[in-house]
Structures are given as structure tokens and as C-alpha cells.
Amino acid sequence: MAEGSVSVAEVETSFKKFAIHGDTKATGKEMNGKNFAKLCKDCRVIDGKNVTATDVDIVFTKVKAKTARVIAFEQFSQALSELAPKRFKGKCQEEALQQLYGLIAGREPANAGVTKVAKAGAVDRLTDTTKFTGAHKERFDESGKGKGKAGRVDIPDASGYVGAYKGKGTYEDKVKEA
């Protein structure tokens, strides 16, 4: 093997990391087309000149089984040997493949552009229940915990008395007196 060559085991480790990326049920033995494209992009196999995203998709479709949607490491290696001469023009197949392995070995999926949780003061201000007024104020108790349905719905008083009547519950006493 050429000097400074990368072991296939290192490439397989990267393959597994990319294979499980974004899929909680993935075992790491098989990779889908989306993750293959991500690996090619993150490891700079796609350079925009010699190898494009379209090339990667074509090679993926070529190496996978006709009905399958995923490739195993064996087909992954086959795909890399298809892409290597394209990526490193003018190099022999073996040398180009080694350089491609060098790009991939030890790499992990990059989480570029992942949305971070906003820590703006506005969110705290908007969720502070002590500052609520009007109808919204009624939806929370003193501790700021929501009252649930009782805080959202006007529950009718079915006691039979008018809302502002002060002598509620005194009818029985009046009947006895008479």
C-alpha cells in the first residue's frame, strides 16, 4: 500500500457515523442516499467541479440493489471507487481511492446550520405570567401555574341563584321561619 494510506476500518467507522446520522432507528450497517450525499458533502468528496451532488446521486443509484433504498459498506466502497477517479483526475485508481479514503477517514457528520434555542430576553418577558392582564391574567394562579380548563372557560354557576345575589344559601332558613 502507498505511504500514508488510510485503513479501511477508519473509513468504515466514518461510514457508520454517517449511516446513523438523523435516524434514531438506524443500525449503522446500511446508509441511505441522503446520508451518502451528506458524507460526500461534509468530507469534501463533492468539490463542485469534478464531482457534483448529481454525480453522487447517480453513483448511489448505480451501486445499490434495484429495489433497495440503502447501501451496505461493500456497496459504499464500490461507490467510492467509482467517484475516486472523478474527484482526483490524473491519478491512478488506487492512488485516487486512497486520497478519497483520506478525506473520509475520521470524519463525523457536521451539524452545520442546526437551529439553536433562542435565549432572547423577549421570550422570558412574554412568558412571565405575573405581567399578564385582563382575561389572560385569570388563566394562572399566584405561582404562575396554569389553571387548565378552569382558566380558559367561563364555567356557568348552576346553583340557581343570580350572579350578584348576596343571600345565596339562605332560602332554607327563610322557609323555616315562615
Descriptive overview:
InterPro entries: EF-hand-dom_pair, TPP/p25. Belongs to the TPPP family. With 178 residues, the chain is mainly alpha-helical. It is 46% helix and 3% strand. The chain contains nine helices and two strands; from the N terminus they run H-E-H-H-E-H-H-H-H-H-H. It has a two-stranded antiparallel sheet.
Care to give the gist of this entry?
InterPro entries: EF-hand-dom_pair, TPP/p25. The protein has 178 residues and is mainly alpha-helical. The chain has helices at 8-20, 33-42, 53-63, 73-87, 93-104, 121-126, 134-137, 149-152, 171-177; strands at residues 30-32, 70-72.
- Quantity of strands, as a count: 2
Radius of gyration: 33 Å
What is the element string, with H for helices and E for strands? HEHHEHHHHHH
Low-confidence segments:
none
Query: How many separate helices?
Result: 9
Strand content: under 5%
Question: Which outline best applies?
Answer: rod-shaped
Structural class: mainly alpha
Helix fraction bin: 40-55%
* Amino-to-carboxy terminus distance: 113 Å
